[in-house]
C-alpha cells in the first residue's frame, strides 16, 4: 500500500458532490447531521448552511428529514438515526467528562501514551447512553499492544463503578459494561507518514476530539498534507476538551517495548474471547467487522474467530 492509499482530492468537486460525499461518510458510520453541522464538516472545506440546503435541493439522492440530511437510500433507518441525534446532547454530557477523567488516569498510568482523543459516536453527535466511549491513541513505538492492554484493564476497573450503565449488544460484557475502549491505536512512526490518507481517515482525525496531546495530532496533520487537502478544517481545529498533563506519571522504564509481545498475546486472547461471546449476535459482529475494516491497516488482531 502506498503512502497515500485511497487518496482522492476534493479540489475539483462541486458543492453538491462535496455534500453528497460528506453525507455518505457520516452515513457509513450510522448517523446523520443537520445542515449547519454538515457544512462545518464538509469535504473540501466549510460550507454555509444555505449552501448545504441548496446542494440538497439540487441533488435527487439527498433529502432533509427530521432536520437531518440523509440519503434517500437510508430512509428505512431515519427514525433510528434521528433518535440518536436527538438523544446526544443530553446523554453525551456525563460521558464526555467521564472520558476526560479516565484519560487523566490513563496517561498517568501509561507514560508511553502521547495523545488521546474522544472518537466514535461521542465525538460524532450520535451518542446514546448504551454506547461505549471510543478513544483514539498515539503511542510510543513498540507500545501498541501494551496500550491496548492498559486501556482495557483500566477500562474494566473504571467500568466496575458503572455497572448500572445501559448496555446493548456491543457494550455488554460478562463482568462490567464495556465503557472505555480503544478505537484506534497508532504508534508514532506509523503517523509519519500515514499509510492511509483517504477521506475516511481524514474524517476520523477531524471529528475526534483531542483530550490529551493535541500537539501530537497537529504534528500528524502537518506531516500528512493530503488530509488537509480533503478537509482544510483540520488545520484550524480547536481542542476545547483538552486536559492538563497529570503532575506525576509512572516511569517509562516500567514499560519497555520488550513487553509488547506478551501484551499482544494477552490482548489478542481477550479480544478473541469478547468476539466469541458475541457469536450469536450477528448485528454486534457486523458492527465490529465494519469498524475494523475502516481502521485497516491499523487493526491490532486480524485472525478469524472460531465458533
Quick structural gist:
Helix 7 (144-160) links the parallel strand 4 and strand 5 (180-187).
Topology of this structure?
Layout: H1 15-28, H2 35-40, H3 49-58, E1 62-65, E2 68-71, H4 78-91, H5 93-109, E3 113-119, H6 120-124, E4 133-139, H7 144-160, E5 180-187, H8 199-207, E6 209-212, H9 214-223, H10 225-230, H11 260-277, H12 282-295
Parallel strand pairs: 4-5
Antiparallel strand pairs: 1-2, 3-4, 3-6
Structure explained in plain terms:
This protein has about 300 residues and is of the alpha+beta class. It has two domains: about 70 residues; about 200 residues, no CATH class. Strand 1 and strand 2 form a beta hairpin. Helix 1 packs across helix 3 and helix 5 packs across helix 7. The longest helix is centred in the last third of the chain and has 18 residues. It is globular and about 60 Å long.
What is the assembly state of the chains in this entry? single chain
Any idea how many domains? Answer: 2
Order of the strands making up the biggest sheet: 5-4-3-6
The overall pLDDT, averaged over residues, is 91
Classification by helices and strands:
alpha+beta
Total count of helical runs of at least 4 residues: 12
Specify Rg, calculated over alpha carbons: 19 Å
Question: What's the main sheet like?
Answer: 4 strands, mixed
Low-confidence stretches: 1-7
Classify the helix fraction into a percent range.
Answer: 40-55%
The separation of the N and C termini measures 32 Å
- Write the element-wise H/E pattern from the N-terminal end onward: HHHEEHHEHEHEHEHHHH
Strand content: 5-15%
- Number of E-type strands: 6
Shape: globular
